Each structure stands twice: as C-alpha cells, then as structure tokens.
Amino acid sequence: MRVGVDATPLLGQRSGVGRYLGGLLSGLHQIDSDVEPVLTLFSIRGQVPVPWPAGTVPAPRRAPARLLNKMWARVPFPPVELLTGRVDVFHATNFVLPPLARAAGVVTVHDLTYLRFPETVDEQVRAYRHLVPDALRRAARVVTVSRTIADELIAEYSLAPEAVVVAPNGVGPEWGLAEPLSEERRRELGLPDRYLLFVGNREPRKNLGTLIRAHASARRADPAVPPLVVVGPAGWGDAWGGQQPDPEHTVLLGFLDDEDLRGTVTGATAVCVPSLYEGFGLPVVEAMAAGVRVLASDIPTHREVSGGLATLVPVQDVNAWSEVLVGLRHAEDDGGAAAAARRAHTRAFTWQRCAQAHLEAYRAAATGT
Predict the structure, then answer these.
(1) Which residues contact 247 (CB under 8 A, 6 or more apart)?
(2) How far apart are CA 36 and CA 82, in angstroms?
(3) Which H/E stretch holds residue 286?
(4) For the residues of 217-241, what is the DSSP string, one character each?
(5) Which pairing describes strands 164-166 and 250-254: parallel, antiparallel, or unpaired?
(6) Which residues on adjacent β-strands are paired with residue 144?
(7) pTM of model > 0.90
(8) Which three-class secondary structure state does DSSP give residue 291?
(9) 142-166 tens-digit pLDDT
(10) What angle do helix axes 16-30 and 282-289 make, rounded to 10 degrees?
(11) Coil, helix or strand for 343?
(12) What structural domains and CATH numbers belong to the chain?
C-alpha cells in the first residue's frame, strides 16, 4: 500500500510534530508493514532529509505550501496526487489535509490549541479554525495522539467515534539507556552540576512565565533550589509571560541534538512541564523513560500520559509551583524504585505501537471500512 505522507515537519529543527513523524516512520519500518511511505514536502526551500528515513521514498515533486494554500482556498485543485504520484492513502501529519483525487485521506489533529487558547498561537495556527473542518470533511480517518484529544475532537466536531483513531506518541529505547552528560560536555554547554529543566519551544502556550516566577520565589525561600535550564528554540509571542528570567540563575540553551538532549534530561534534578495545554506531552514521557522526576501542570493530557507518576501542579498557581520546587530538596529519596516505576510505565509508549494504530487507520481508509 502506497501512502503519501506530508513530511514537511521533518525539515529543519524538529519540533514535537517532527519528532512524532520521525518516530512514526521508524515504527512503520520496524513492524515490517506493507506500507510504502511516499514523503511529500510542501516546501521548496527546506533542505531535504538526508538520508531519507528507512523504508521511505521521496515524492517525485514538491511545491510551496503558501502557493498551494492560496489555490486551495479558491478551488479544491490541484489534488495532492500531482505531487505524490499514485497513492492509496494520503496522510496529512499536521492538521491540514489537501484536496485528493482518488486517494483516501487520513489527518492527524494533535490538539485544539487554535480553539482553546487562540491567544497563544501565531496567525498560521489560528487559521486551523477554518482549515481543520475542511480536513475532517475530506478524511476517512482522523488520528489523535491521546484519548483526551480524541474526546475533545469528537465533541467539538460531532465526529463518529469509530472514525477517530488514538495513536499515542512513542519513546525510543535510547531514552531508557541514556546517561547524564559527561562533565566535560556539561561544562561546554554551560550546565551547572544540579539543575531544573524545561524542554520545548519558547511560546506562550508553554506557560514559562509561571515557571519563571515560581523559580524566583522558590530561590528566595531557599537559595539551594537549583538553577533553571531552558532547552528549545525560540518560538513566538511573549514566551515569558511578562517576566524575564533571572540571567544569574537561568541558563538558555536553545535547540539541542538528540544525544545532548537525552543527556541533559537524564542529568536533571527534575523536568518541569508547566504547559497551559498539550495534545500529548512528549517531554513528560521522555523524562519518565529516563527515570527522571517530572513536575507537570495538572491538565488532562498530563494526567493521561503520566499514569499517576508525575507531580501534577495547578497550572498557573505560582505559589504551588514554588512550594513544589522548594520541596524537592526535602522530598523522600527518589532513587531506584521511583525511577524504575517511571521507566516501566513508559514502556507501553513505543513507536511500533503508534505505527500499528496508524496502519489500521490507513487500511480502514483505503478499504472504506
């Protein structure tokens, strides 16, 4: 079965959607399915992935999304098969499903931020308010990365539950084998010996302002609270919520490659995930897979994926976050048993399992069942 795949998220520094797509393609290859992914790039500027992911082939043509979107806003032409060639299914991996000729459509809707928190996203994402309904009308199957988002989507758009497939993100086995960075590499990156860690794009939805305020308050109460390290690319808008981080006790690292990221996560005292809203919460599961303590906002997706093994904190309660950060120093030993429980919980989150759910969606879409 030939499946066209929107591979645009693989270009450049990979955000959460790029990591989802990379993991999915790896999982499809590992389960030895009958799927031949045809990777389609809606861009003419981005550097193509080299090498292409194992088991995939590039589409014969590529075109810029900006031009295509202008055309598609007027008429449902050209169909995506003019880029992919003949495919049985086209999988739109990032909210927007283009017009189709004969292929069946599958679309992944990662979250409903564009509806729930429109003030936290840029203009391109706010346009999903109009584009996602079109995608849902075209799609034979809709994929979500958590049960929470599936339920939201069904309720918001009155979808038939059988048309929605839940395919949780995975965590590669390398996370369970990760070791803290060497002292030499830690010094090269400017990392302190002990640190709290945030991983993600610096954007308003991530609620960094609450974490920054709580960290400053915690250090006033107890100067032994470790510095805060922020890993991830700059996003958009007021990422800090009007509160600039203290440069003396905050380290901004920017984007890290996979190996450095795993080592940085594994060496953290705790990973902090204060998001206002998430579709899945990959940093939560990756940190837990490495055995690391997680402090996360008390939102439905974090409850779902953490399995009761993360410390959940009211989303924008600075005092509550501050108390948790201070309390880390006096918490019970968080060694062997707790770390082992976190690792064991995350073993259910594999890219093979994710790929199997997608494979079922592709087959159902292709056969019309």
Answers:
(1) none
(2) 18
(3) helix 282-289
(4) HHHHH-TTSPPEEEES-B-SS-TTT
(5) unpaired
(6) 166
(7) yes
(8) coil
(9) 999 999 999 999 999 999 999 999 9
(10) 60
(11) helix
(12) 2-170+350-367 (3.40.50.2000), 173-346 (3.40.50.2000)
Can you read off the two tokens belonging to residue 82? 């003019």
Phi, psi of 94 (to 5 degrees): -145, 60
Tell whether the model's pLDDT for residue 69 goes beyond 60. Answer: yes
Contacts of 259 (CB under 8 A, 6+ apart): none
176: phi then psi, degrees, rounded to nearest 5: -70, -15
Edge-to-edge strand ranges of the sheet holding 104-108? 57-58, 36-40, 2-6, 89-92, 104-108, 141-144, 164-166
The DSSP letter of residue 113 is H
Over 80: is that where the pLDDT of 219 sits? Answer: yes
Q: Determine contact, residues 14/7, Cβ cutoff 8 Å.
A: no
The per-residue pLDDT for range 309-362, each reduced to its tens digit, is 999 999 999 999 999 999 987 665 556 889 999 999 999 999 999 999 999 999
Q: How far apart are CA 131 and CA 282, in angstroms?
A: 25
- For the stretch 89-119, pLDDT in tens is 999 999 999 999 999 999 999 999 999 999 9
